[in-house]
């Protein structure tokens, strides 16, 4: 990763970014990535700077990751559309794949958030059972808890409203290989569907009106889209 040449995300700026410092070397902090496998993963994030424009970018920013080659970008398990620069945490790509189907169907951010919290709780219970089982085998009495030093984790999984906002922002994000947002892509797909004048084009999930045969879609010059809810 240290030998990768990463161009500046600013289209008007030419040149490569160089490493400056990490979040751990400067602030002794780590960046969390939450998923459905249990406890979050903690990452050291490099801050990169351009020598000419002096702009700074975090290496886990979607605008930076999208310029990485695939083998480099895959080392950070977050989709570039969801790698927002100002978020305190990210969600892993495999988790977003699951949430995408749920949000598209139910728009239930609270359920997605509850799944993240539940996965952490279940992972903690499994580790506690394993610890107590080992202590029983060794015929030792486990301590009640680890002595704390007044420090605790202040980063938690996002709440439902935040997850919904993430999906809205990702739908309008152009931080992908083809540089077109999902919102624009879906709009163009709808606009490209055409009907014969006087007919109604409908899908099974939006209505049961007359279906237009697929072979006649391209034989018309009028773009009309009728939605029936």
Question: What labels describe this entry?
Answer:
229 residues; alpha+beta; 2 domains; 3-stranded antiparallel sheet; 3-stranded mixed sheet; 7 helices; 10% strand; flat; disordered C terminus
Report what the structure shows:
This protein is of the alpha+beta class and 229 residues long. The protein has two domains: 179 residues, no CATH class; 37 residues, no CATH class. It is 34% helix and 10% strand. The chain has a three-stranded antiparallel beta sheet. The protein has a three-stranded mixed beta sheet with strand order 3-2-6. The radius of gyration is 24 Å and the shape is flat. The C terminus is likely disordered.
